[in-house]
Amino acid sequence: MKTVFLDLDGTLTDAGPGILNSVAYTLEKMGLPSFAGDGTWMVGPPLWDSFRQLGVPEDALDDAVQHYRDRYGHTGWSENSLYDGILSELKTLKSLEYKLCIATSKHKTYARKITQYFGIAEYMDHEFGSNSDGTHADKTSLIRYGMTQSDASSDQCVMVGDRHYDIIGAQNNGLRSLGVAYGYGGRQELEKAGATEIISKPSDLAEAIITLLS
């Protein structure tokens, strides 16, 4: 069966505000300087990677992630919005009997809250996210796990995402990739990573996937 792995943050929803507010909360709790300038680079990567770049010591990374999750689980997940037309695109793909799977580095519990709240879950056959210890936060590992669990074949799959992590994860598993330039990575990042195809607006999602898997 044709299978579509879909990133969540920056692909189906605009999750930036909740993520950045939760990062700022974490840094304040840990007595570290707040980040300056454009923080959108933090939307997409595993939390441990982001906090390393923000200067959190290695032995304090787990504490930082827990502070982040405390706020995100309570408030941050809801500081989010669907991209226009996304549910319509998912409905089109589902009507054509594509198998749809969430593949996000976000903790699977929070991802599930978001997909249920915004009506995404009803279109999904599987939802794959990271575990509390960071297992499957890396997209290569996550996609490989998702392919095994969904019994998917690489020649019948596509990974959809807005960051180079999504594209590289797809390549490492032999998948085609669809980059969404309307998310947080932008066209240049997606082109550099080697995305098979790139779209600039959510309304092109279903058509591009159908073409890639035709």
How does this model look, in words?
- The protein has 214 residues and is an alpha/beta fold.
- The protein has 2 domains: 3-14 and 82-212, Rossmann fold (3-Layer(aba) Sandwich), CATH 3.40.50.1000; 16-78, DNA polymerase, domain 1.
- It is built from 9 helices and 8 strands.
- The protein has a 6-stranded parallel beta sheet, with helices on both faces. It has a two-stranded antiparallel ribbon with strand order 2-3.
- The longest helix is centred in the first third of the chain and has 14 residues, at 16-29.
- It is globular and about 50 Å long.
- The termini are close together.
- The model has no long low-confidence stretch (mean pLDDT 95).
Order of helices and strands: EEHHHEHEHEHEHEHEH
Q: Uncertain regions: pLDDT < 50 for 5+ in a row?
A: none
Alpha carbon gap, first and last residue: 12 Å
Helix content: 40-55%
CATH topology of the largest domain: Rossmann fold
Annotation field: number of helices: 9
The backbone outline, from C-alpha atoms, is globular
Estimated radius of gyration: 16 Å
Going across the biggest sheet, name each strand in turn.
5-4-1-6-7-8
What is the CATH superfamily of the largest domain? HAD superfamily/HAD-like
What is the highest CATH level, the class of the largest domain?
A: Alpha Beta
**Largest sheet: number of strands, sense, barrel closure:** 6 strands, parallel
Structural class: alpha/beta
- The pLDDT mean sits at 95
Number of strands: 8
Strand content: 15-25%
Count structural domains: 2
The CATH architecture designation of the largest domain is: 3-Layer(aba) Sandwich
